[in-house]
Amino acid sequence: MRPSSHSAVLLSAIFTAALLAVAAKADGGSVTAAASPSPPPAWTAVANVNDRSIQQVGQSAVRIYGLSTNKTYLRYVNVVSGQTQPCNGGYNYRLVVTVAGPGATAARYDALMWGILGTTNWKLLSFTLAAN
Question: Which processes are annotated in GO (biological process) (predicted)?
Fold first, then answer.
């Protein structure tokens, strides 16, 4: 290391120690590590994939994907399975959706949507061909 690098490292260490001392003083004299964030809530299986709201989420995922990728020929068929998870005031929806393509071809896709039921606040987070 060059002498200027040693000085920079030393000054950085001194500055960090001073900040910790100030924080400890303001905190009543103790320095504690930041608490780790709590893990996200668990995924819950969708009890009824034929529920109208679940079908609408699946249909919206196909529509948004088709419009964003210029594949507007894709047609929603149904939701095969799904899970939900509370997230940021709404829910994540992890769905397996059957989609019809050109002709008689059909395929299953994994769709991940976030949204709040009864609102227009929806985001398609991912849409990928499902593994067999």
Answer: defense response
Task: Please state the domain extents for the chain.
Answer: 1-33, 44-129
**pTM of the complete model:** 0.69
The phi-psi region of residue 12 (left if phi > 0; otherwise alpha if psi is between -120 and 50; otherwise beta) is: alpha
The DSSP 8-state label assigned to residue 122 in this structure reads: E
Query: What's the mean pLDDT in 66-93?
Result: 95
Token pair 């994939």 is found at 49
- Distance between CA atoms of 31 and 127, rounded to whole angstroms? 45
Helix, coil or strand: residue 100: strand
Q: Which residue has the higher pLDDT, 4 or 42?
A: 42
Distance CA 100, CA 42 (A): 31
- pLDDT tens-digit map of 80-94: 999 999 999 999 999
Instruction: Report the side by side order of strands in the sheet with 122-129.
Output: 44-45, 75-87, 90-100, 106-115, 122-129
pLDDT (tens digit, 9 = 90+) per residue, 108-120? 999 999 999 999 9
Give the pairing type, strands 44-45 and 75-87.
antiparallel
Assigned CATH class of 44-129: alpha beta
